[in-house]
Write a structure and sequence with these properties.
176 residues; Metallo-beta-lactamase, Chain A; six-stranded mixed beta sheet; two-stranded antiparallel ribbon
């Protein structure tokens, strides 16, 4: 599922949350207790509602509670606005602009409707993602990694991203 949310820049811009939702585990005992025919189990597990011999069977009859999925949130070209933290809440990965890291660039960030690395870190601190990658640096910011130690004082799980960065996301191990 992809959600777009409006951010605050000089032109219309959006951030995005990409989520992989997960249904609950198939519960054989529940299915048997409710006398759900085994021939329907696979279709119910895939989310289908089925009418069979005058009886309606629904996925919630055989599935446990939804499991935690995966979520990546991305935004650039914006001032920090609360909606960003709302979408980044508990994300597996939050990718956010960090246009400026140098002291004294706050006014420029406000003027051009971008954000500093520190503003991004405060959004991450509020949202609580597992990790944040900073990106979308000013051309004048040639070594963004120089500022990461200071940024990590606000949000410890921050990296200065570069082209080619990759990460493998995994579902919770106890939830497979």
């Amino acid at each position: 599922m992809i959600d777009a949310y409006k951010v605050n820049h000089n032109v219309v811009c959006y951030g995005y949350a990409v989520s992989i939702l997960r249904t609950g585990r198939f519960d054989v005992e529940r299915a048997r207790a409710q006398e759900v025919p085994q021939k329907l189990w696979s279709r119910l597990q895939k989310g289908e509602t089925i009418s069979d011999n005058g009886t309606v069977f629904t996925p919630d009859m055989v599935l446990g509670p939804p499991r935690r999925g995966l979520k990546v949130v991305y935004c650039t070209d914006t001032r920090p606005v609360p909606v960003i933290a709302e979408y980044a809440k508990e994300a597996d990965l939050f990718i956010c602009e960090g246009m400026y890291g140098e002291d004294g660039k706050e006014a420029k960030a406000r003027e051009y409707k971008h954000m500093t690395m520190y503003e991004a870190a405060r959004l991450a601190k509020t949202a609580g993602p597992k990790e944040m990658w900073l990106t979308h640096y000013s051309p004048s910011l040639t070594r963004p990694e120089e500022f990461i130690d200071s940024v990590r004082k606000i949000f410890p799980k921050t990296k200065a991203a570069r082209d080619g960065f990759t990460m493998e996301l995994e579902f919770d191990k106890d939830d497979k």
